[in-house]
Design a protein that fits this description.
It is found in: Cell membrane. This is Cobalt ECF transporter T component CbiQ. Keywords: Cell membrane, Membrane, Transmembrane, Transmembrane helix. It comes from Clostridium cibarium. The chain has a three-stranded antiparallel sheet. The chain has about 250 residues and is mainly alpha-helical. It folds into two domains: about 1-135 and about 230-254, no CATH class; about 150-225, no CATH class. Helix 2 runs antiparallel to helix 6, helix 7 runs antiparallel to helix 8 (about 150-180) and helix 8 (about 150-180) packs across helix 9 (about 185-215). The two termini are about 45 Å apart. Helix content is about 70%, strand content about 5%. It is globular, with a radius of gyration of 24 Å.
């Protein structure tokens, strides 16, 4: 079980209705994306982070580590936006290359900052949902909104195979480490290539075994998963409505 999945099952919001949590997270995300305001993004980021930390047994340091990977990806992808190649210098920064300039304008800088803040605040909304809601509960929400069954089934199988492949990879890595398979860079590359090739072969075998086991249990093209029943508390609905109204009013005023 991966760490995020463990956190979801151990969350204090684990037994809250997943439909309500999904509505709350997605609606705040939509408001944030539509508003495209730095203030709304910062408020959303702080609010979603505070709720996640308050109801999950994780530290601020670990939460920031979870945000580091998407943040670094956003920084790298924003390079193409913030820099411009022009035939004339721009107001903020210009570096001459022959008859052209590698330049940064104030508009491109502000647009990039706004884009990063909007994206990272949207990710915080999704973290709130994924760190408090197990994957099977999310699938039940998709069923309620009549998502195509083939998509739900593919998501379930892919999710299942993440754990299968991780387990196989960790077993192979442990075996390689016990035989000094990572003693230097060259050996590490060779061990990695060996692990990937074995992982591919074993994944095909696991897939065949899984299908055979499903066939032996009268698989008819539909995977059935037991879903829990949750009661929606009036207090939870009121809290969600108050936060939604606050964010929406702030977006309108700003």
């Amino acid at each position: 079980m991966i760490t995020i999945d463990k956190l979801a099952y151990n969350s204090n919001l684990r037994h809250k209705d997943p439909s309500l949590k999904s509505f709350f997270a997605i609606s705040i995300l939509l408001i944030c994306v539509i508003a495209r305001s730095n203030i709304i993004s910062l408020v959303t980021l702080v609010l979603m982070g505070a709720i996640t930390l308050l109801y999950n047994n994780i530290s601020l340091t670990y939460y920031l580590k979870l945000l580091t990977v998407p943040f670094l990806f956003l920084l790298l992808s924003s390079v193409a936006i913030i820099f411009n190649i022009t035939t004339y210098p721009l107001d903020l920064f210009s570096l001459e290359f022959g008859s052209h300039y590698l330049a940064i304008s104030s508009n491109s800088l502000f647009f990039t900052i706004n884009l990063i803040l909007t994206a990272i605040s949207s990710i915080s909304c999704l973290y709130l949902l994924t760190l408090t809601t197990p994957f099977t509960d999310l699938l039940s929400v998709l069923k309620k909104i009549h998502c195509p069954f083939i998509i739900i089934e593919l998501m379930l199988l892919i999710y299942r195979y993440i754990f299968v492949l991780l387990d196989i990879a960790l077993t192979i890595q442990t075996s390689q480490k016990s035989r000094l398979g990572n003693k230097n860079f060259k050996t590490s590359l060779y061990s990695m290539s060996q692990m990937l090739s074995v992982l591919l072969i074993r994944s095909f075998k696991k897939a065949s075994t899984l299908y055979d086991s499903m066939e032996s249990r009268c698989y008819n093209g539909e995977i059935h998963v037991l879903n829990e029943t949750y009661e929606i508390c009036t207090k939870d609905i009121l809290v969600v409505i108050l936060i939604e109204v606050f964010i929406l009013a702030l977006a309108i005023l700003v």
